[in-house]
Amino acid sequence: METPISIKHKKYLVSPKGILFNIQTQRPTKKYNHKMGTFHCGLRTQDEVLAKAITVLMKRQQESYQQELADKKKLEKPLCDLPFSYDEGTYTFNPFRLNSCGWDGKKNKVFVNRPKLFSADNKELEPSNHYFGNKDEYSGRVFFNIVPYWNQEGIGIVLRLRAIQFETYAPMPLAS
Fold first, then answer.
1. Which pairs from 88-92 meet CB under 8 Å and 24+ separation?
2. Residue 176 domain-assigned?
3. Are residues 140 and 165 in contact, defined by beta-carbon separation less than 8 angstroms?
4. For residue 77, what are the domain limits?
5. How confident is the model over 101-117, as pLDDT tens digits?
6. Residue 92 near residue 85, CB atoms below 8 Å
7. How many CA atoms lie within 13 A of 16 on its CB side?
8. Which residue, of 27, 65, 161, 162, is most buried by count of CB atoms within 10 Å of its CB?
9. Could you give the CA distance from residue 4 to residue 13 in angstroms, rounded to a whole number?
10. How far apart are CA 144 and CA 13, in angstroms?
11. Which residues pair with 91 in a beta bridge?
């Protein structure tokens, strides 16, 4: 899995090229309380080799995290929360989530982390200049981390969205 030049100083996992859907980058969905929200993006891919590599990585991370909690006597039985499915030759990862809002204790205020958007030729795009409808689909890939969690919802892992690179994309239509 390769990394484009534009995403510097961090090593993220890269999905295979596929169909991106249900993209939300303009504002986070409110969840749990007024300080929390997520941006998200779904991915469908038929690249079996890379899709299986992602699922193996996810399973290893999940098992390792479950074992760590079990060793500390915090978890009685393993749980699994892997956000992917397989249907007729297509792997669907839905959604990649980015916990976009949180509380910064040092600055004493809410912070928001937006995923970066890149064109096919590695130029950074401004999220506010693009509109993604719920039924729109684009081709591209996502850059992500696999992050374990343990909270009131349970124990599992989340694919944390860091960036989206489009093979095809549509700028927001100008108001007439």
1. 89/46, 89/48, 90/44, 90/45, 90/46, 91/44, 91/45, 91/46, 91/48, 91/51, 91/52, 91/54, 91/55, 92/42, 92/43, 92/44
2. no
3. yes
4. 19-166
5. 877 778 888 788 889 99
6. yes
7. 17
8. 161
9. 11
10. 5
11. 45, 86
In this structure, is residue 98 part of a structural domain? yes
In a domain, 153, yes or no: yes
Q: Are strands 90-99 and 13-14 parallel, antiparallel or unpaired?
A: unpaired
Instruction: From 169, 44, 173, select the one nearest 119 (Cα to Cα).
Output: 169
What are the pLDDT digits (tens) for 19-77?
999 998 888 887 655 567 888 999 999 999 999 999 999 988 888 888 888 777 766 66
What's the pTM? 0.80
Q: How many domains does the chain have?
A: 1
Q: What is the CA radius of gyration of the chain?
A: 17
What pLDDT, in 10s, does the model give residues 127-176? 777 778 778 889 999 999 988 877 766 778 888 999 999 997 655 554 44
Angle at the Cα of 89 from the Cα atoms of 48 and 148, rounded to 5 degrees: 55
| Closest-CA residue to 171 (of 117, 122, 106) | 117
Q: Is residue 13 included in any domain, yes or no? A: no
